[in-house]
Design goal:
Helix content: 40-55%
CATH topology of the largest domain: Rossmann fold
Number of helices: 13
Radius of gyration: 22 Å
CATH superfamily of the largest domain: HUPs
Number of domains: 2
Structural class: alpha/beta
Strand order of the largest sheet: 5-4-3-10-11
CATH architecture of the largest domain: 3-Layer(aba) Sandwich
Distance between the termini: 31 Å
CATH class of the largest domain: Alpha Beta
Largest sheet: 5 strands, parallel
Number of strands: 14
Shape: globular
Length: 409
């Protein structure tokens, strides 16, 4: 599966700072010091609907991670998956009377278009669950051979008790985990499971549903968590720098994935930092496909909204915060984009050297994009009020905003 084209990232004078970021597992900040190649895995979409603002906010956060690392002169090895077979996709295809594979292709194509328009840097490897199945099957077989998986009426489950570190990503108690498991795709009440929290590794073939050859597992399809584990281990290995996604993935998805990988390899941890973006709401509720309260990136683009304004709207809230999408949020971003473009359109202006440092420091400090916006706002206000004589300043501001915030002025 191919990703989307990369926009050019301008080089800035000097060098950026190492990223300090909040780690869910320790519930505190960690300073990441990758080697010359920083490694990041971000969980991708289940392509049964278009990219909404909650998706965009998540991928915006991890685009900033990439940009901070690139500014430190590192390379970035970024991997993202597409869960192109799963229950929600099959259910939507049945509801709409379309082929599930066609629906997945259609929505993945639209997602790529949205990411291109928003100038999100693409992953080096963009892998679908279906194409990963040949690598998933041996991992499930190995977990079974290790005694960490068991058969239940033909389905294969992972035993969470096999991992002594289980629970150390989300740090939730068993009762909270059970509630979230039921809400987020698990089946804690299924009779016969060794532990109600045990997740599915391999779903035996069901009539009318797609299935694949699973070797000694029989025909079926993979569970959600083992999909990402197989892709991450194949392309990044263990103890990569950042495992990312929305805050609703901390449990069960990232918790279960970490346990799968740790049992498979005997190594700990799967990732140096587990980083989670907040939820975006609309009309007082989390924006989600199940509720149908969605604002789509593609719809805004069709209405003529500049994608740069959409990115500024996303940047105006700290990535870890839960926030509400409103017409005013978008209008404020449109107004800010206009002010910035007017400021950099002049032939000269006040010096921008300090601005570069301010934006770098803000983003290195747990991706504080609102502080970065405020720094550019101050420069634009000085430009409007006083002007300046530095002929290189407007260009430097444009390159800084482009390189570090992904916004083309």
């Amino acid at each position: 599966m191919h990703a989307w084209p990369a926009s050019e990232v301008p080089a800035l004078p000097g060098q950026g700072r190492d990223l300090r970021i909040h780690d869910t597992a320790t519930d505190g900040p960690v300073t990441l010091d990758p080697g010359p190649v920083a490694r990041i895995y971000v969980c991708g979409i289940t392509p049964y609907d278009a990219t909404h603002m909650g998706h965009a906010a998540t991928y915006n956060a991890f685009d900033l991670v990439q940009r901070v690392w690139l500014d430190t002169k590192r390379q970035v090895h970024y991997v993202q998956n597409v869960t192109d077979v799963d229950d929600p996709l099959l259910e939507r295809a049945t509801r709409d009377g379309v082929d599930w594979a066609d629906l997945a292709v259609q929505e993945t194509t639209l997602f790529r278009e949205d990411m291109t328009a928003l100038r999100m840097l693409p992953p080096r490897h963009y892998i679908g669950a279906v194409e990963a199945i040949p690598g998933i099957v041996p991992l499930v077989e190995r977990l079974r051979d290790l005694g960490a998986a068991y058969d239940l009426d033909g389905d294969i489950y992972f035993s969470v008790d096999a991992d002594p570190h289980f629970g150390q990503v989300s740090n939730l108690d068993a009762a909270a985990m059970r509630v979230l498991s039921a809400e987020r795709g698990g089946d804690p009440d299924r009779p016969g499971k060794k532990n109600p929290l045990d997740p599915m590794l391999w779903l035996a073939a069901r009539e009318g549903e797609p299935s694949w050859d699973g070797g000694t597992l029989g025909r079926g399809r993979p569970g959600w968590h083992i999909e990402c584990v197989a892709i991450a281990l194949d392309h990044l290995g263990m103890t990569f720098d950042v495992q990312g996604g929305g805050s609703d993935l901390a449990f069960p998805h990232h918790e279960m994935g970490a346990s799968h990988a740790q049992v498979l390899t005997g190594e700990f941890p799967m990732a140096k930092a587990y980083v989670h973006a907040g939820m975006v709401g609309l009309d007082g509720e989390k924006m989600s496909k199940s509720r149908g309260n969605l604002v789509f990136v593609s719809a805004l683009r069709r209405d003529g909204v500049d994608p740069a304004a959409i990115r500024l709207a996303l940047h105006s809230h700290h990535y870890r915060s839960d926030w509400e999408w409103t017409d005013q949020v978008l209008q404020d971003a449109v107004d800010r984009l206009g002010r910035w473009r007017a400021a950099v359109s002049r032939p000269d202006g006040p010096s921008a050297d300090a601005l570069v440092d301010e934006v770098r420091e803000a983003l290195a400090n747990d991706l504080d994009a609102p502080a970065a916006l405020a720094a550019v706002d101050r420069w634009a206000a000085r430009q409007e009020a006083e002007g300046g004589t530095d002929i290189g300043a407007p260009g430097l501001v444009s390159r800084t905003v482009d390189a570090l915030l992904g916004v083309a002025l």
